[in-house]
Amino acid sequence: MRDVSERKPQFGTKAIIWRLPQGWRLGNILNMSTHRQWLEHGLDGLPEALASRVRLFRLAVASGAALRNRLDREMAGSGVTTQQAALLQFIEACGDAPTMGTVAQGLSMTHQNVKQIALVLERKGFLVIEVDEQDRRARRLRLTPGHRRFWARRNPGDFSKVQQWTAGLSDEEVRQACALLRKLFGSVAAQVPGGSDDGPA
User: Fold this and answer.
1) Do 139 and 200 contact (CB within 8 A), yes or no?
2) Residues 21 and 3: beta-carbon distance below 8 Å
3) pLDDT tens-digit profile of 164-191?
4) Closest C-alpha among 200, 52, 28 to residue 131
């Protein structure tokens, strides 16, 4: 058995201990075990079309978590997390200094989460938080030259790692996977309520 500690605010600072079988994590549908038993768990009696969609969901979540963990380990020594890197890359893709609200909406995050990450990245010298000239309540995120120097050094090695991690797929399978995942992402993003803009942009 494995102990997992989860802090519940409603219980103060006391830690709630969950005991799980070795190799399993919290949750039912989000369990990260790679065993077939996990993939098929709870699907008996479901229409096959629905069961297949649940399998897709589980595999997508598990794959995303595994890749994020690998990248976090790869970047551990740099002081930048995968989430921070994603935010920086999104800002750069915007082509200009986007508002926090734009970033929150684009990454399906809350305005408060974007603000917290941005403050950390500002302290690290990756970006500057500026007051918007048109709307004094809004804040824009502008990347620094240090950000670009950092990725110029890292990208060759990081891209090489991504090639290793995806080596199980042929080039054609990668193209197909990108097309399908892009379609899935667009569908999911379209269903997200407009609740990410919970503060000034």
Assistant:
1) yes
2) no
3) 999 999 999 999 999 999 999 888 878 8
4) 200
